[in-house]
Amino acid sequence: MQPPRLLLLLFLLLLLPGTWADPEGSCKLYLFQTFTFHNTNFVDISAWATLEDIVFAALQKYTWKILYFHPWVYPALPAAEWENLENLFRVYVHNFILSLSADARQYQTPYPFVAQCMAGCELYPNRTSRAFVYVGYNGQDFLTFDVDNATWLFCQDTSLSRYVQAVLQNYTAFSELVDVLFNDTCVDDMEVLLRYGKTALERQEPPVATVFARTPRPDQLLLVCHVTGFYPRPISVAWLRDGQEVPPGPELNTSAILPNADLTYQLRSVLAVAPHDGHSYACRVRHRSLGTRSLLIPWGNSEVVLIAGLGAGLLTAVAVAAITMLWVWRRRKHQQMEESESRNSILSKEA
User: Fold this and answer.
1) pLDDT at residue 86, rounded to an integer
2) What is the tens place of the pLDDT at every residue in 297-321?
3) Per DSSP, what are the bridge partners of residue 268?
4) Top-level class of domain 5-201
5) Tell me, which fold does domain 208-304 have in CATH?
6) What ranges do the domains of the chain cover?
7) What 8-state DSSP symbol labels residue 75?
């Protein structure tokens, strides 16, 4: 009996990394694998799968069992199919280590070395899609699989890359299977997982932003906008000068979006300005969790105005309160004097 197509998809994806752009609005299924060959006797293995940016499954290091990190993952397949997947992966890992170790001996590859793979598919809002398979060696691109033409291409022209390319290209059954899975089934299977993980994928955490300044030298001021704690990943951060957005340029430097330990994200945007240039600056943050609103965090003159206005308001409030208390005290004193005079007049008449 042939293994189910999702089982085969997950198995092949876990076999075979790279880096590429991820346009906003697309849906992505990634599967990663890393083999670290420390020496001829010890190989460290890690493999994991992500739906969007959620790690939903991974390979346990020593038992080679699949771990499920969310309650919605395991019901996506019957238990027997997950068991078959584990068994297939164990066979693959064993054979992969033997094969790569033999190649290392043949080409006298120095230890340690690292083999990495990434594969998956991406679905765009217009319902078009693309699939990909990347192979890396010691942190560099090594091979890619042209899904449209079912052809392995090397990224670096070396004797080792030509050898591995020839081996994979001659293994036509494997290439054809990869071609069918990625062209015909990857997106369908990803949509199944998207339905199961809908609640987790729709989680929203609003950003928290702070603005502060640094002075690396007397003639330069660095305004830093630190934005953290947001989810999902897409976000827009811009600097406003006198209410107008600062265009990209050498004075503007925004970091990559980085993960936090609590499964949210953070970034920094730094704007270099001249001290006391007379302009007002503010950091504007837009994010899905904020809806149509934006965070606007001012710095400089606008901040000083806010603080000065707050001080003046407090002084006014204190003055009003003091006048009111003085008036109330005088009013009560006057009433007490009138009551005392009235009592004395009554006592005098009675006498």
Assistant:
1) 83
2) 998 644 333 333 334 344 444 444 5
3) 226
4) alpha beta
5) Immunoglobulin-like (2.60.40)
6) 5-201, 208-304
7) G
